[in-house]
Amino acid sequence: MIISTVVAFAAFGSFWGVWGASVPRVQRQADIGDGQLGLALLFVGAGALPAMLLVGRALDRWGLTVAAVVIAALGCAGAGMVLTAVSLERLCVGLAFVGATSGAADVAMNAVAGRAERITGRPVITRAHGVFSSLVVLASLATGLASAASLPLVVPFAGVAVFSLLAGASLLKTLPTGAAAQRHEPVPAADPAPSTGRGIGPFVLIGVLGALGFASENAHQSWSAVFAHDELHSGAGLSSVAPAAFAGTVAITRFSIGGLKASHSRTVLLAGAAAAAAGAALIAAAPTLLIAGLGLTVAAAGTAVLFPTLLGIVSRNVDESRRGRATSVVTTVSYLGFLVGPVYVGVWADAVGLRGAMVAVAALAVALFVLTPALLPLSGFGGRGRSHASKDEVAHQTSRSGYGAEKPVDSH
Fold first, then answer.
1. What is the C-alpha separation between 229 and 247, in angstroms, rounded?
2. H or E stretch including 264?
3. DSSP H or E segment with residue 370
4. Rounded Cα gap, residues 162 and 244, in angstroms
5. What whole-number distance in Å separates Cα of residue 229 and Cα of residue 141?
6. Helix axes of 306-317 and 323-379: crossing angle, nearest 10 degrees
């Protein structure tokens, strides 16, 4: 189950790596200006947000096999969007479908990763997000090479579509079925599950923390190249390296800290917020590209740990009957921060310049550092929760994989 989960995250990262590197070619194909492109990109979020909210209920009603369907659909939606994006109107429709399938896949894959982590007692969520970040970088580079070779625009998207279909098939084959898929465990009294009797409030609070983390992350991802070019007068080549370096650092960090125990979650969050704040402040004051690069690395390492750690806290404590809705709420609220982050920088840049905007980004991380000790206990997720499933769940998974019942599944 772990391997199929990781493959799904790899397919997800591949899609967004291909898309990010293909935006200029898509714009030329649709024959639209920058303002029209900005309008079209809004349809990604417009499609994603309602889908993210709805898929949680679908997961709880029909099980995690929904994830297999939506990850396969994402690749197909991307290929369809590219084939039909020959005008502004068609591009907007295509991006709305891409946003809907992407948002649904995001929630569903995180729910699957949480289930796999709970069943096996192994670190799945953070490392799966590391795979996602790695594939964003690799797919971006591969798409750039395809573009340089003058391959048709649809080629990399078709490759991702095939990859997504294979990832969906792998998930469908390895996810628990029948009674095992719906088995619910009460969380021990020492680690209460806020999912019972308190509505979505606890998940919204965790999502607020995630939104602050995602806002910081996407602010750097979206504006680092502009900062390097405008404030430090680097060439276009060096400036374009900044987002890739940021994503690469995020991936390395997630792989490195993925094995930390659940009891360290709060420490990881505080350390990540502090590093994100320090990195953004260093960028704001950087006199040279080298110093700015150091600040970007520190900020990337800090933001990398935030959302996966928060999702892990929820996943370990939520009852299985509400895993889909819990993941949906946390991911959707966090995603709002991802959408707002670049806009937040733009507003501050207009008011006080890009260096001042980086100080404002540091303030987001400071707010996260201050709010984490307050909101975690308030949400009911202050305890470390459980890191593994019942013996029955493990036995079911091991019997499907051919391993002895004495050890948890670590593959498929």
1. 18
2. none
3. helix 323-379
4. 25
5. 21
6. 100
Residue 155 pLDDT exceeds 80: yes
> What's CA 39's distance to the chain center, in Å?
23
Q: Of residues 409 and 30, which shows the higher confidence score? A: 30
Asked if residues 162 and 348 have their Cβ atoms less than 8 Å apart, the reply is no
The pTM of the full predicted model, rounded to 2 decimals, is 0.78
Average the pLDDT over 369-374 and give the result: 95
Token pair recorded at residue 330:
């946390």
The packing angle between helices 323-379 and 201-230, to 10°, is 90
Cα(395)–Cα(372) distance, rounded to whole angstroms? 36
Q: b or e along 219-228 (b: 16 or more beta carbons within 10 Å of the residue's beta carbon)? A: bbbbbbbbbb
Tokens read off for 162: 């095939």
Query: Token pair for residue 396?
Result: 């079911």
Structure tokens at 405: 């019942």
Percentage helix, strand, coil for the chain under 3-state DSSP, each rounded to 5: 80, 0, 20
Q: What is the per-residue pLDDT across 214-251, written as a single tens digit (0 to 9) for each?
A: 999 989 988 888 888 889 888 766 766 787 788 889 99
Whole-angstrom distance, CA of residue 25 vs CA of residue 23: 5
Q: How confident is the model at residue 390 (pLDDT cuts 50, 70, 90)?
A: very low
Measured in whole angstroms, the distance separating CA 8 from the mean position of its chain's CA atoms is 12
* Cα 274 to Cα 210: distance, rounded to the nearest angstrom: 15
Q: Which residues are within 8 A (CB) of 150 and not within 5 positions of it... i.e. 6 or more apart?
A: none
Cα torsion through 153, 12, 337, 198, rounded to 10: 150
Q: Two tokens at 302?
A: 């800090």
**At which residue do the structure tokens 């200006």 appear?**
33
CB 81 within 8 Å of CB 33:
no
For the record, the structure tokens of 189 come out as: 């009294």
Q: How far apart are CA 101 and CA 103, in angstroms?
A: 6
Complete DSSP assignment for 143-187: HHHHHHTT--THHHHHHHHHHHHHHHHHHHHHS--HHHHH---PP
Q: Which helix (H) or strand (E) holds 296?
A: helix 289-304
| Separation of first and last alpha carbons in the chain | 4
